[in-house]
Queue: 2 jobs
Job 1
Amino acid sequence: MIIDAGHIRWIAGTGLAAVASSILYVWADRTTPGGLRGGTTAGLWFGIAGTLLMAFAGALSALRKVPAWWWIGSRKAWLKGHIWLGLLSVLLILCHSGFRFGGPLERVLWVVFATIVISGIVGLLLQQSLPGLLARRVHGEVSFEQLPHYCGVLRGRADDLCDALKLAISPADDAAGRFYSAYDDDVRPFFDVPAPRRTTFIDEHAIRVWFDRVGEALRIGAAGDAEAAAALVNDLRPTIDPAKAKELLPRLDKLVSGMDRLFDTVNTAGLPAAAQASFTELRTLATGAPEVVPAVISQAASAWMAAIESLVTERSGLRFQERVHRWLHGWLLIHVPLSAALLALTLAHIVMSLYY
Amino acid sequence: MDPARDPKTLTDRLETDYYQRPGTLRRGKWFWSVVALVVSTVLVGALIAMPRWHSTFQAGPVSSAHAVFGADCSQCHDNHFATAARLIPGITSSSVSDEKCLNCHGAGRHDPHQTTNTSMSGHFAAKCVSCHMEHRGPHLARLSDQTCVRCHADIKTDDGKTRYAGQIQHFAHGHPEFGSWRGKPVTDPAGGKFFFNHERHLNLANDLKDLPPDRRPALAAEFARMRDLDCAYCHTTDADGKRMQPIRYDAHCAACHPLTVAPQPAGIWPDDVAAKFLAEPLKHPGPDQSPELIRSQLLARYLSVADKAKSTADRPIVQPNVLQHADEAVAADRERLALDRTRLTEGQLFDRKGVGCNMCHAKTGTTPDGLPTLAAPYQQRGRWRDEIASWPDPERFRSPAYADAANRWFPLATFDHRAHRTYKCTDCHAARTSSKTEEVLMPNHAKCAECHNGGRQSARSDCLTCHTYHDRSQERAPATLTRPAEPARGGP
């Protein structure tokens, strides 16, 4: 939740309540023999008020379990109350204790309570800053729950592109072999969720450098596109044997039109088979101008490699989102369970303190 | 539009049923919440189930005096859930009843007239736990001024009368002058009838320093001691270093003022007899004795030296020593003679102004036997025994706790001389300028407040520095206290 102008009334109300509580505490502390303690009249009332506020703050997690009754208030209002009344409860509990730490159970309560409050404040601060950072650095944000599936989709597309690339650049080539090996060892695991802690692809710059080196090693030029490849194939038209023109020219036209499919790096399903067929057809049709074949293949390989780099870059962005998400919500793994422990310990404190 | 994010291909990229399965974060929250809840509940349950671990629930360790109870909370706590009643302002119920405290501490009452926090009237002026709050450190009896001031800052009594001061905030604020409740300046009631000049005695060693040693050979050593000890020549503290021990004639006066007297009538005694008579001081009557003691000593002496008198006129009539009745007549005559001489000597001691007994004691009358009644210093009269009757609460001071207090100038407070040993006596007691017996040389409130004022560099000035609350003489052995059982040990 972003702290904005909508919180002003809550802040003012909490501040007023804090000032009133402090004044009441000072008065009660001075007029209570031995000072205000948890067991004095004022101390007990401070304890009740603080506990009620803690209970209200804890009820936020139960809110999603009940229907959206109109009288119960909006979730946003509850969240504001959770923040500000939860903070106010700290002051009231301090007043309840007379700013003392008490015995062993009370000390444990203090540690748990302080951890809950601090984790909540940390979470609030993170939620003030990280969403903006995420919006600036990650353009294609995906729902966190979708990340495993979505990254699997990305990996599938990368696998298709890589399989197609193997048809263009044989693994038998020494440099190509090293690339395919690196693809299996580094690129594919990079699409796992959660992402591996150690990776080559720490940011966009590292990714660009890595793929530039791969491109140099594999002698892949600038990224090609379907139009350029279609133009190259079209250039084969004069080389077609006139005797076979009736049979081959339709095949050439089909090959030209099929270039769009070959360069479609988004819908990669069936790409390797399409590439296999296109390259075979191209070699058949390019007998009169064999230099066109490697030129077209190079265009395709270049586009596929660029597509793989794009997928890795997108995954890198999602990895940042993944990490930010863990920061944004990971504190809840401390905040919420300790709140459950606080509930049990508080009940024990209340019962035993009143019993003795 | 980026073809990779074309809405038409949305279902190719995204799951449509992802919301049906909980996310890892939500699963983690639930799992760890359940773990935390179970662990803390089990832990608390174990602590409750094991009494020896109940100290875990204490707000703080028990005071050192109650350390013997250990974790056995029931030794003190018997009113369970009574704490909850304190939610209602004005109710001071406690889980520890006064009876539990009184099992061990038969503490005496404070003031039966006070109305604040009164309970168990006749024995206790307030609930024990109103002042003695446990689990707040090692000292249960060392109370803060706030505990006293909450009543004494605006004292309320059942008869509306304020006996000492109505609004005492601190020793430096609102505290009355010492002994002001007597309604008059503190004076020695023996003044005018018993004589002692502090100024004269403190300067004596200096005034007589040029006296030839051969003139007063016996006093030379005493003057040296007086010069060295100053006030301590007479005033010494008890073993605790707190109170001054009474002045005793034998210890403090006899060296310079021996009860010596020449045998009477003068001139009938051989020199050796007279010298011996004069050299042996008479024993001074003690606090519970009278001049009868002097008379009996003189009689004994005169009977023992009767045969040594030179004058024939004084000799007894000699009868033939053949009959029993003759011996009896001789003996009767010796006793009559000794009594005559004794009365003659008593006149030297009792009746001459400025010398003998009259140096210190004023003669207040004569007994039918002819013995004088002499004014005694306060110590010998039980000090304030007579005055107590006029005190605000005489009954209170008749309790054993105040038996000693009745012998003190300010019975409502204590004083520790040893704590002030770095000062000279005369820094606080104006003895060097005091020449009258009735002048009580106790420092006043302003003198004490020079150091005990609660300022930044003040000496300790809280109420308990000087005052006590309970009548400790009423403390008794525990009635029902049982020592907590030792934890079970392993087998042999």
Job 2
Amino acid sequence: MSKNIKDNQGDVWEVFVQSKPGLPHKHAGSLHATDKEMALQNARDLYTRRNEGTCIWVVPLNAITSSMPEDSESFFDPSDDKAYRHPTHYIMPEGAKHI
Amino acid sequence: MEDAKKLEEFQAKIDAEIKIEPKDWMPEDYRKHLQRQISQHAHSEVIGMQPEGNWISRAPSLRAKVVLLAKIQDEAGHGQYLYSAAETLGKSRDEYIEELQSEKAKYSSIFNYPTLTWADMGAVGWLVDGAAIVNQVSLQRTSYGPYARAMVRICKEESFHQRQGYEIIAHMAQGTPEQKAMAQDALNRFWWPSIMMFGPHDSDSPNTGNATLWKIKRETNDELRQKFIDKTVGQAEIIGLTIPDPDLKWNEARGHYDFGKMDWDEFWNVVKGNGPCNKQRLEHHKKAHKEGKWVREAALTYAQKQKEKQMVA
């Protein structure tokens, strides 16, 4: 049905905001825009009205590839049986410190 | 058979407080309920800009004007967050807007009341945003991830709205007798519609269905309404205004305020489109949307041309 409506508001973009230098960019939400400049400006107006950010990334939704929930089990399965990747797997000699 | 198993897994996730995300399987009724509820919420934010927009050009000071502008801009932002959340359910923004304009979708009835005086800007922020906050704080724990995240963001911003409204009405209540009377009049007109914002009594709420089982709704209409009333009575007392309900009194045994009967005939009448401003609100929305059409077209054409240029280069 949406394809029948001629009047549209541009594509969906996903917005990632870095709140402080040194921190990772975090997904803040999405918005509509027709080009990347508009996407950036809209992201600023929509997600950083109160100084929430030092940097913004905008990414067209259709450029994102996501794993699918129905595949989660098999997709993440390879790390299930590898407890040796965690420090708690190793037995330390009694009395050993700072390790 | 397949669906029965999926439904069981879905319910197990809900029961374990695991959020549902857009790509997860969900029952069709869950999807429909959320599409309706989130879009109605988005429409309310956007239509809610109109009664306040009415006072921008007549704000009594520059400070009041910049505050009001910032608040209305926030409401536009809240509408955007919510439309985005609603779009993750597989319907486009254009479809949602079409539903609003063709009256298939509703928005909160409170915005069909006029804002007659500057004191109404106080009452709207204090009571209407106050009631919305009680509802939205509860919805931060709703089971659908994108909706819950939008609520967290909105709640952070709303508390400024309520405080600015209360500041306006407190200021007027402490002013000249005429100003105090104006503040009282705003409270008189907005009190009942505000407490009816939580919707019908739980016993006759048409849209509840599985909303509680699926944890879309975390508290009932009546529980939320009671919370709001309990919070607000003291705020009215402290600024010397009287809540227009002769039956309002503290009930020691319940630990809550008792309150009078709400006029549900009026409520349903306004929902059905016969409130003082229903027609005006919708017509204004259509007009603004229509007048913005050339901007959307120009933006699309510009984007297309930029793309073509890049291909040539």
